[in-house]
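Continuing the series of single-chain predictions for the mutant panel. This is the parent chain; the variants come on the following pages.
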Amino acid sequence: MTRRVLVLRALGLGDLLAGVPALRGVRRAFPGHRVVLASPAGLAEAAVATGAVDRVFAAEAPRRGVPSLGHWTGSPPDVAIDLHGNGPKSRDVLAALTPGRLLAFAQADPRPALWRADEHERDRWCRFLAAYGIAADPHDVRLPPPAAASPARGAVVVHPGAESVSRRWPAERYAVVVRLLRASGRRVVVTGGPREVALTRDVAARAGLSARDVLCGGLPYGELSALVAGAALVVSGDTGLAHLAVAHATPSVTLFGPVSPRLWGPPPGSGRHVALWKPGPPGDPHGDVPDPRLLRIGADEAVAAALTLLRAGLTQAAPTSPGISTVRPG
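Parent structure:
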């Protein structure tokens, strides 16, 4: 019988990609096991594309909550690993499956490590695994080149959406960025998810884009990955597309608001990725009003950062190289 490792990380695309270093550490630590990721079904293609996951066990809950795993079938997992959170809820849904071994921040005996609120997401989970003797490199973020062809190779990709309002920069500022980048001679395409059709079209209309440069409604993951991998630059808020740009070493400008890029931004290194952020007290990343720090970032700052990266003529790093970034607090 095939031995199984069940990993719980039932969050979004950005969370999945930030968890790739830890997932690859798990894959290496359990080479004879089948690695199953408890995650939203919509992330199955992205999860398998990391090379660290064999299949996705569909599981999700509203507002990033802890999902039920009661529909797990067959024998208990040989190993269960909580990469979802640090509390007893995520630990307990795994414990209810009576795995042969359970790894979780909330384990009392033995207690693996203490949760640190000031730690970058990639570093946190690699440190957690290290406490169990599992080596993971937080810089191991790169994805292999997508098999699909890009729908707009060489274009600048502007993605105005985000899961929460607190991380959405105003549409009119994105439109200014699009207009000025087009004026510099660049092709620009605007993307949006299934629930962002109105926002995507609004930005495109304000910027005077033609229909061929508006990719709204949510591209299939393979096509989205190819779009980002083949782009000259990605401009977005703190959302999954920014993590995808890091994963493909595509130059990017990311607009941060309620959460510091030191916690969720690209790995530090060279100037391939620019994180724009105004320091201040942490906000609510899931809030229903735009974060004040995000609103302090002007369109002129975003355009200047984008043009600097474009004029540098950066090419993609080799797939084995780590993602690299620069943080620029305002």
